[in-house]
Every structure is written in C-alpha cells, then in structure tokens.
Amino acid sequence: MKKFMILCLLFSLCACSATETANQETDAPAACDASSECTDDNETETAEFTEISMEDALDYFRQGKSGVLFFGFTSCPWCKQARPILKKVSAETGVPVYYIKVRDEDGNLTYSDEQREELSQYIGDYMSVNKDQDNKLWLYVPLVINVKDGKAVDGHEGTLKGHNAEKEKLTAKQKKKLKKIYKRVLTE
C-alpha cells in the first residue's frame, strides 16, 4: 500500500511539472496595462535604476533633456522579467536608465490622466490604444523610451509578442531577442 501511495505521489508531481511546460505555448498580451492590477506571486526587487517621478519624466520632453526612461511597476510580471535584461544591457552599454514607477505598492496609479495625456503627445508612437478606454492611448508596461534632446527616438513596449508573463517565463532565446531590442533602444 505504501509503495502504491508513493507511486501515486510521484506520478502527480510529474504531471504538475509537465503542466507548467505546456503553458508556455500561448498567444497572450506582451505587456501589462498600467491601469490594471497585473500581479505575480513571486515578488522581486526593482532593478537598480535611478527612480524618478512622472513629472520628472515629462521634464525630459519639456526641457529638451536626453536619457532612457523605463516605465513599470513592482508587481508587473512583464516588468519583472524585463528588468534584469534591461539592467544588463544598461551595464554593458554604460547607458543609465531612469525608472518611473506607474503604480504604488497598493496598486494605485502614480500619475494623473492629464500627465498620461501629455506623455502621449511625446511618446504616442510607443503607446497602445486601450479599446476599453474610448480608444485613448494608454501606458502599457514595461515601456522603455530613449529620449534625445526632448524627443523620443526609439522605444519598446512590453516584452515580446505572444509572451504572457502571467503564465510563462521568457526562454533563453526570447531573452536574447529582448536583449537585442533593448540594446537597439539604448544605443539609438
């Protein structure tokens, strides 16, 4: 009887690990809507970027500054997977990244509708339309924008098309592809 129970336990453990692998084939969104509460039970620390406010980020455009802006939030599953890759590219290229947290720890937005609308005037080409919000441009994260002299010259929203960070981790091949994208954005 003990052997039978052990075999059943081993079989169920094997079945669970096979289920996780099967979830990697999905066609889901590649970004987290900053207005929704995407969460992941595996909290990780924010990569070591210089944190600035949304108002400071807007000043990059208003005042003709240059720098790389990374919009995200701590519990966003896509951001959690993108951060280490972006941090590595930042270290390799020597390009500093400025982090704008778009949600606080309670899940509240850290910016106003007016700030989002102003931001969309500067980076609208890198924002997506939210069909649930009267087709307005919306801030989906992670969003990395390279700003030169107050103008967005390159950017990338989300991780990769079809990647659902709520269900799967980036594969080594996907990480390499995202790293290449971030390198392009940072060095544009």
UniProtKB/TrEMBL annotation:
<dbReference type="InterPro" id="IPR036249">
    <property type="entry name" value="Thioredoxin-like_sf"/>
</dbReference>
<feature type="signal peptide">
    <location>
        <begin position="1"/>
        <end position="17"/>
    </location>
</feature>
<protein>
    <submittedName>
        <fullName>Putative bacteriocin transport accessory protein</fullName>
    </submittedName>
</protein>
<keyword id="KW-0732">Signal</keyword>
